[in-house]
Amino acid sequence: MASLTKQTKIKRRRRHRNAGRQRKNRQAKRSTPSYADLFADLGEPGKPAPAPK
């Protein structure tokens, strides 16, 4: 059986790695705008675009 120190180091490394992955996943969730967000100002497809503001 591994020593307590070895177990602690492995657990800490895993927790840090998982925390970094969770952080990156939260950042990436809204990093790319959706199709609706990108083209919301252009109006409905097949209809004339709304007048500029």
What does this structure look like?
This protein is mainly alpha-helical and 53 residues long. The chain has 2 helices and no strands. The protein is rod-shaped, with a radius of gyration of 24 Å.
Describe the secondary-structure layout.
Layout: H1 4-29, H2 35-38
Oligomer: single chain
Strand content: under 5%
What pattern of helices and strands is seen along the backbone? HH
Total DSSP helices: 2
Shape: rod-shaped
Radius of gyration: 24 Å
Helix content: 55-70%
Largest sheet: none
Mean pLDDT: 88
Count of individual beta strands: 0
Name the structural class: mainly alpha
Give start-end ranges of low-pLDDT stretches: none
Q: State the separation between the terminal residues, measured CA to CA.
A: 71 Å
Question: Gist?
Answer:
The protein is an all-alpha fold and 53 residues long.
Comma- or semicolon-separated keywords:
53 residues
